[in-house]
From TrEMBL:
Keywords: Cell membrane, Membrane, Transmembrane, Transmembrane helix. Belongs to the UPF0702 family. It is found in: Cell membrane. The chain crosses the membrane at residues 6-22, 34-50, 56-75. This is DUF421 domain-containing protein. Residues 142-162 are annotated as: Disordered. Residues 152-162 have a biased composition (Pro residues). It is a multi-pass membrane protein. Its main location: membrane. The keyword Transmembrane applies. Residues 79-149 form the YetF C-terminal domain. It comes from the Bacteria. It holds the Pfam family YetF_N.
């Protein structure tokens, strides 16, 4: 029974830790992000199994973690607040030519991450970006500026109105 309790506690602590370190880890997986996740898992497994290194203990821990995952999915489907806690909400980080620096710092997202997402969409620069949104999964969505989104030039005084 102690393996079950330790696995359940480890699941919730790791869920909290991953939420605290931000979305970047979940989506971008730079080498230092992978190191953090591997260390999390390695640290958690020793606390879950303790001195019991039997196959039964390992299987019990795996099943408990699976049940915790199912429970979290069920809770997310029943509670919008819990869903937002676990997965977050989309956050606009760039709009109308302006960076939302406070939001970016909070998400630990850099301008280069947004620019990379724009380049992946085939855009040449920020002048072609209308919005950039950090999604729930950590990816950056780019909403491209269309011609009707661009400011219209002031009419010539010599041109008669149409």
């Amino acid at each position: 029974m102690s393996v079950v309790l330790r696995a359940a506690v480890a699941y919730w602590l790791l869920l909290l830790a991953v939420r605290l370190i931000g979305r970047r880890t979940a989506s971008q997986m730079a080498p230092f992000d992978l190191i953090v996740l591997f260390l999390f898992g390695g640290s958690a497994i020793t606390s879950v199994l303790g001195e019991d290194h039997s196959i039964v203990a390992a299987y019990t821990a795996i099943c408990t973690i699976g049940i915790m995952h199912i429970a979290v999915s069920w809770l997310k489907s029943r509670s919008i607040r819990f869903d937002r806690f676990v997965d977050g909400t989309p956050v606009v980080v760039f709009e109308h030519g302006q960076w939302h620096e406070k939001r970016m710092r909070w998400l630990r997202l850099g301008e280069q991450d947004v620019l990379a997402a724009a380049r992946q969409r085939g855009l040449r620069g920020l002048h072609e970006v209308y919005y950039a949104v950090a999604e729930r999964d950590g990816k950056v969505s780019i909403i491209e500026r269309r011609d009707h989104d661009r400011p219209t030039p002031a009419p010539d005084n010599d041109t008669p109105p149409v």
